[in-house]
Automatic annotation (TrEMBL):
Keyword Transmembrane among record annotations: yes
UniProt entry tagged with the keyword Transmembrane helix: yes
Keywords assigned: Membrane, Transmembrane, Transmembrane helix
Source organism of this protein record: Pedobacter rhodius
Protein name (database record): DUF3307 domain-containing protein
Length: 236
């Protein structure tokens, strides 16, 4: 990856995440195209290009980034509602990074090597990672469904689907740790989860719930470790 692409990305990260106060975001959401903060935000991105490149010769880059950034943010402000705000945030960032690569390609003849997409190793890694997300969650649900504790309306409520997403994240982390030969991190992850879970289970005073959580945790870690080791042996 060339230094120019990295510089443009750094300018974007600083402008979008460090130099954009929450009050500006709210102002843009409320006033949309009439918001002065929208245009000030774009101006900051232009200025950052000059600062990062330390040269006024980068004016074409700065102008291009500024115009594209304004178009993307303006479109986002027009389309954004409370319901689609979350998904538009990710679409917005994808468009910004795509525009950065486009500008880099046009002015610096940059080329991203994506030949890895056609490699068998890539598809093996992708299949292993995907299997450890929703498919494993469903498999685990089927296996331990018969031990599911009876619901108690008086028990504290957890976030909706929090357990499922925590399980997915922990399995993906185990997948990454094992593939990068950091087996010790798996132990730290298990210890950290045990510490956080200990307080909840201690308060619950429910042996069945404790056993259910223990079975789920060990099953999740076990599947993740076995699948990760299998994938590791295949890609080697």
């Amino acid at each position: 990856m060339e230094i120019y692409l990295i510089k443009i990305i750094i300018a974007h990260l600083i402008g979008d995440f460090f130099l954009q106060p929450a009050s500006w975001v709210k102002d843009k959401e409320r006033k949309k195209l009439k918001s002065g903060k929208l245009y000030l935000h774009v101006l900051i991105h232009v200025v950052l290009i000059f600062i990062i490149f330390m040269s006024f010769n980068a004016w074409k880059i700065a102008l291009s980034i500024g115009v594209l950034h304004l178009m993307i943010d303006a479109l986002k402000s027009i389309l954004q509602t409370k319901k689609n705000a979350r998904i538009l945030f990710f679409i917005d960032q994808i468009l910004h990074f795509s525009s950065i690569v486009l500008v880099w390609h046009i002015f610096y003849k940059g080329y991203l090597n994506i030949s890895f997409i056609n490699e068998t190793k890539t598809w093996i890694l992708l299949s292993g990672g995907l299997f450890l997300t929703m498919p494993t969650s469903i498999i685990m649900k089927v296996i331990i469904a018969k031990w599911l504790p009876e619901s108690d309306d008086e028990s504290p409520k957890s976030l909706q689907n929090a357990g499922k997403y925590i399980g997915i994240l922990e399995r993906v982390l185990i997948f990454v740790f094992i593939l990068t030969n950091h087996f010790e991190a798996v132990g730290f992850l298990l210890a950290a989860k045990s510490i956080f879970r200990f307080g909840d289970l201690k308060e619950a005073h429910d042996l069945k719930l404790t056993e259910y959580v223990l079975i789920g945790t060990l099953l999740s870690f076990g599947i993740a470790i076995v699948v990760s080791l299998m994938i590791l042996s295949l890609v080697r």
